[in-house]
Each structure stands twice: as C-alpha cells, then as structure tokens.
Amino acid sequence: MNVDDLQWQLSNLGGIPPRIVDEILERGGLEALVEAAREREDWFCAAGAVRGLCAVGEFGRAWTVVEPFAATGWQPAVRAGADVLLTEGQGCDERVLELLAPIAEEFRHDPKQCDDLWGALPAQARVLERSGRADQAIRLLGADMAARRHGPQNNVKFYAELLARHGRVEELRDLADTQRYAAVSPYVTALENLGRAGEAEAYLRDLIAAKHPGWHESTLMGLLIRQGRVDDAIEAVEHTFDDLYDGNLLQATLIVLADRGLHDRALGLTEGRSPEFLAENDEFWLRSNRWWLMGESGRAREAIAEIQALPADRVEDRELTIAWLLAQDGRVEEAIALLRPLPGERAATDLAELLIRQRRLTEAIAVIPDVAAQREEKRRHQPGGPERPSSQ
Questions:
Q1: Residue 172: enclosing H or E segment and its boundaries?
Q2: Beta carbons within 10 angstroms of residue 343's beta carbon
C-alpha cells in the first residue's frame, strides 16, 4: 500500500466507485467490503466498511480496517481513523477535543501554511456540538468564517447546517448574504422547516431578480416542487432550458420530475428545444434522456425498439443503453450477458450494479478491475505519454 495509489483512487474515483460501495453496503455487503479493503487495498471499500462497522458499534473492527491505510500517513485515512476514535458514544469526546484543539489552533494561526488541516475546524465544532456545547461550537466556527479561515466551501456549508440545527436563523441569513454558494440552500431549508416557505420563496426570487451569482433558480425549483407547485417550479427555470453552457437546468428538471414519477411531463420538456441548443448538443443528448425516461416509466421495450431501428453509429453507448433498458424491463440475465464481454470501466460498473441487484456482491466487486489495472488502462489512453504520479 502506498500514498500515491491512495491519492490516485481519491482523485479519480478509482477502485470500487463510491456509489457501488454504497449499494453494496445497503444490501448487507459489509463483510464483502471489509474483505475488499484488505485484499484489494481499496480506499472506498475501506471507508464504506468503516461506516458500516461504526453504525453497528464495531469500532474495534473499524479501526482494524482503516489502520493499514492510516499507517501510510495519508491524511484522508488518518482523519478517518481519528473519526473512529471521534465516534459518538465512545466516551472519548474530551480526549478527542484535547487532540483537535492544537491542530485547529495551528490552522487558525497560519491557514496558508497548514492548508491540509482545514478539516480540523468542523471536526472540533462537531465534537463540541454533540457534547452539549453548541454555543461554543458556533462561536468558534463563526469566528473562523468571519476571518475567512474556511478552507474549501464545504466548511461554510457545515457552519450553515450547524446554525440551522440550532435555530439560529438570523445568523444563517447573514451568512447566506455573504456566502451564497454554500449557505443559501441551508437557509432556505431552515425557513421551510419553520413553516416559512413563502419567506424562503421571496428571498430566492429577490436573489434571482438581482442576478446574484449562483444557481438560485435550482434551489427555487426544489422548494416549489416540495410545495407541490410543479407548474410554478418549471416556470421558474424554463428560461434556462436552451442555454448552451453551465446555467442550463433542463437535465436537473428532468431528474426532479422523474423522481416524482412525472415521466410524461419530463418527456414533454425534451421537445421544442431551440435550433441553437440542438446544434450544440446534437441529437444524442436528447435521445439518451428520452430513452432513460421511457425506461423509468415502464416503456423500456419501446425504447429498445427505437434504438434498434437506428443505425449503430447514431446511438452513443448502444450496448450499455440497451443493457440498462433490458434490466429495467426485468430481463436482468440478458443484460448481464450483454455487458460481460464489453470492455471499459463503464461496462464493468454497469455489470457490477446488476450483480448487486441480484445480491451477488462478491462477484460484483470482482468484475471491477483493481487499482493497478485501472491505472494501467488510464496510462495507455492518456494523451501525451505515461501517467504522472498523483500529487499528495
């Protein structure tokens, strides 16, 4: 085990992808993850196994899983190991705070020189909160935010959620006014949970009207959907549907509608797009979304027939799409047979998902190439020469 391999996994979502790990864990595959962490030195399997073991109170085994990774000195593994000893219910909060305090103060003293220690700030606040000292946690982390000692933006998000949990709505509003990307959504959710959805809607509409940066239309759409106002939600975002760049919320809207079983409504939104949008996105994007929505709504056979009626070069990822539709139609073994001979990580991951669906969990892990094989595959396909080592 070496740090470069571990960093490569984290940077490239290499090894067993996190979503596959989550699915295995959800289906009772904890022991399969423990074994994969040991045999394959797979970081995401190790992290999933640690979560699963801590959830059932097996903290000693969780430490056994993560200890070889932490022994390399790789910071994400070290932090995960500390979290096992940070873990609620172990009676270690005071000891953990003793350990965290000097680390957090080191970061506060010189954030630029200690950039990899930013996680100590929310960790300290989390332990203070669960030990009954939420006011102290808010005070410390609030001072950090005011001094812009927040590292990545997810520290701001953690602080916003901390304020929301303790009903500090006015402070949360102040934070949202200065840290919109990370704090607007928690503020809106807090208002909604307090029965103040109208106030949340007005706040978002004001931001949108003032053209403040951020995808506030997306947050507004979610709020309106949760209120059962589907027409209003679509109206709030439909002006983006023909945008050619990052502000386009058509895909997000299709997903939201599909999650609520409104597949026909979603399919209707794929029609009538502008010639400029169609020229930029070609027909493949809209077709793939159409087939996905048909598969989700029980029309998989109709979608397969559409694909098979087209020339092969007119359908991206033809076999992968057909395999997914076969599985949606309940023909899982046919889908597995179609995927097995296909090369590439995407086919292996899709195959693993189908095997997980059948609770063939160890087999699902085995069909995904290990880290060494994945790195070699990327090296061969990397333009400009061999893969360079990941930065630590």
A1: helix 169-178
A2: 8
- Own/partner pairs, 120-128, CB within 8 angstroms, 24+ separation: 121/149, 121/150, 121/151, 121/155, 122/155, 122/158, 122/159, 123/79, 123/82, 123/83, 123/86, 124/97, 124/100, 125/158, 125/159, 125/162, 126/86, 126/158, 127/86, 127/93, 127/96, 127/97, 127/100, 128/97
Whether 296 is in a domain gets the answer no
Contacts from 311-319 at CB under 8 Å and sequence distance 24+?
Answer: 314/283, 315/284, 315/287, 316/284, 316/288, 317/288, 317/346, 319/347
Q: How far apart are CA 384 and CA 392, in angstroms?
A: 22
Range of the domain at 200: 152-240
First-to-last alpha carbon distance for the chain, in angstroms, is: 14
Query: How many structural domains does the chain have?
Result: 1
Residue 189, φ and ψ in degrees, nearest 5: -65, -40
Tell me the C-alpha distance between 335 and 320, whole Å.
9
Say how far apart CA 92 and CA 130 lie, in whole Å: 12
Higher pLDDT, 294 or 316: 294
Residue 336 within a domain: no
User: With bands split at pLDDT 50, 70 and 90, how would you rate the model's confidence at 344?
Assistant: confident
Tell me the CATH number at 217.
Answer: 1.25.40
Whether the pTM exceeds 0.90: the reply is: no
Q: What tokens does 5 get?
A: 């391999």
Residue 365 inside a domain? The answer is no
Tokens of 333: 């073994």
Interval 84-107: pLDDT, tens? 877 655 566 777 777 777 777 777
In a domain, 251, yes or no: no
**Half-sphere exposure of residue 144: CA atoms within 13 angstroms, side-chain side:** 32
150-184 tens-digit pLDDT: 766 578 888 999 999 998 999 999 999 888 888 89
DSSP label at 45? H
CB 270 within 8 A of CB 290: yes
Query: Which of 29-43, 117-131, 148-162, 375-389 is predicted least confidently?
Result: 375-389
